[in-house]
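Human: Cast an eye over this sequence-structure pair and say how the chain folds.
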Amino acid sequence: MELRSARLEELELPLVEPFETSFGVERRRRFLLLELESADGEVGYGECAAATEPLYSGETVGSAWEMLTRFLLPPLLARADADVLRFRRDAERYRGHRMARATVETALIDLAARRQGRSVGRWLGGRRTRVEVGVSVGIQPTVPALVRRVGRYLDDGYRRVKLKVKPGWDVRPLAAVRSEFPDLELWVDANQAYPVAAADHVRAFARRFQVAQVEQPFAERAVRAHADLALHAGFRVCLDESIVDRASLDDAIAARALTSLNLKTARVGGLLSARELARAAVRRGIPAWVGGMLETGVGRAHNVHLASLAPFRLPGDLSASDRYYSQELVDPPFRLGPGSTLEVPRGTGIGVEVVESVRARARRRSRRLTRSDGRRR
């Protein structure tokens, strides 16, 4: 397909409540929205999940803006025939910048699916009409506040809860939540917060409080430490930041460093990479699930479509829109349904539409690139 233009915007929306992890606290979400327009007037959207600071990843909103406007979009616009697979091959010449690359890939897939009259999920090969989800709960000001927050999510209908933990915020909150909710499916996520020397401590609290899954307790390169933890663990050891491509997944599997895989579209460079990694993991008996990065409805839609694929067997971190945003960027918003599920949008492309009034209020800067910008490069 021939592209007419690309519009890149930096937007900012307030979160319903502060979201705290071992990396820090987010109160407002600043992100990039990419709109690709084809020569026949159809549009496709991608969302860049990079944060404002290089904490979870080395990428930021600023670096992604530079990568997109200087290196990724101009050559794409210059081509007479824009194609998802060709873009992926061309983009591989650049080191890193997977979140920026995922932004373009998801927009291209949305556009291609819309022009073919299919949903993104069907375009990818998904068949589920609803996907099971859980909720991720950030570090709270107090333990009683955490218990109340978990209780509200259970009242809303969520069945699986993941708690953010870090040294000093693990045993007491876990004890309180487990005491109040003895039958809850409980996961924890440390975002690399623990030193390798704390392995016995992590193993002890996971077993004591019947934690079903421990996610990324150690540094992303500490593959051996995760393998030691996973040996006779009695709970799943999930890797997140450690897995960015097929090579890192193959190495981790060979080391037996994971028994669960969190796949984030942004982290691994797009939907096609996430699909490939999920299939590779499941062939080795490792269940995969779709992680979230505080995306608005555009990124959430792509993630929900991804979760409709067969290899994703565990409930993802794809909570309803009102979990994070009081004003959603898309219509209709995502609502929690029966069995702690979200409906996979049925329309073409991502199946939801951007609300222009919300987009305009959230806009911080905008740039439109055309085919002539690509030819001048």
Notes: The chain has two domains: 3-117+354-376, 122-352. The longest strand covers residues 3-21. Residues 227 and 254 are 10 Å apart (CA to CA). The chain is about 35% helix and 25% strand.
